[in-house]
Amino acid sequence: KQAALLVRLALFAVIVLASGLVAFRSALSGWQRWSPLLFVATGVLLIAVLVPGIGRGVNGAHRWISLYAMNLQPSEVMKLMVVLDELATKLKVFGVQPRLALECPVTSNK
Predict the structure, then answer these.
(1) What is the pTM of this model?
(2) What does the alpha-carbon distance between residue 57 and residue 40 come to, in Å, rounded to a whole number?
(3) What is the 3 state secondary structure string of 19-43?
(4) For a pLDDT cut of 70, what percent of the chain falls above it?
(5) Residue 81 to residues 39, 91, 97, 99: CA-CA distances in angstroms?
(6) Residue 71 contacts residue 64 (beta carbons within 8 Å)
């Protein structure tokens, strides 16, 4: 049982590290472009929880979607999508050109 827990935690760690790497390596303009679609897709997941056979009950609350190895709570994903969508909207309104925050200009010593 402890080995199964270790495997599960290792799986979560790999998923989180891979997601973080993708998010870090992605340009902000890509997030700006995709945020409305991601927002709508997450809204569909929130509705899917209500569909019998898709939504799963945990401790009496039917807010989960089973993904075999783990359960997904779409409301937690929606919190991130609201922030991304609001950020994309503000960038468009204020005309800010999105750039990666940790970019370093390359200089030459000539």
Answers:
(1) 0.64
(2) 23
(3) HHHHHHHCCHHHHHHHHHHHHHHHH
(4) 85
(5) 5, 15, 20, 19
(6) yes
